[in-house]
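ok so I'm stuck.
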Amino acid sequence: MRGAWRLYDLVMDVEVRQLRCLVAIVDEGTFTDAAIALGVSQAAVSRTISVLEKRLGARLLRRTSRETSPTAIGSRVVAHARRVLAEVDNLVQEATSGQVELRIGHTWSALGRRTPAFQHRWRESHPETQLHLLRINSPSAGLAEGAADLGIVRRPTADRRFESATVGHEPRWCAMAASDPLARRRSVRLADLSSRVLLVDRRTGTTTADLWPANARPEEQESRDIDDWLTVIATGSCVGVTAQSVVDQYPRPGIVYRPVRDAEPVAVRLVWWRDDPHPATHTVIELLTGLYRA
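replied:
not stuck anymore, here's the structure
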């Protein structure tokens, strides 16, 4: 553990300008030419490399009267430095050119049948911003993990770090095996399911036994994600209750969906960091709200 922390401290002490200086020396061949390319004095180049070598605890360059070349470890550091500098340059390019990436995470389903319309309208109205829809089965749909800029969730979040807005509502449907007697009906009621085993995902699912009256709640069995949920339901041992978007997005052989006509709808929420919202947050809210109204 101490070794890991020491490596972390070393990385944090290394500066981008030091890496640029190292790469410039290797590319130009001499300290003098590197100083010209960087627009600094030769003395500044020498000081910068000296500090970098001290921080890394290794000699990076081999100097002769005619040329400068990297040592064995220097060659490895230069290779890493080139990758780091490329990432930094990409970051600067994105920040200054208006090219923005928008990652929207979702747990089980994005927007169901509205997903293609959302993608198409976004591409038409905001071609400068690349949209990525990512399935991430976490309570914040990847927001807390840093994997998403916005999250589409279908259950309230108690995390005070996040702000949210309801963009629409979806009816609840029951998923059951095609061989289930209830599959012959056009719709079901909550009372029809109270004697069944309800398959739930407590982390990100939309429905638990709390949807039923206290004296008529079904038995629960836990699931891990949408694929596991569908696989178990297809066996006929459990049923599941979910939002319309799952019905749209996950047709599956051996499973039928029937509307639950007396269950309250599921609220669809967009969540974002309270103190650091993505610039496109309110635009996304308006677009999603319009899609659900339609």
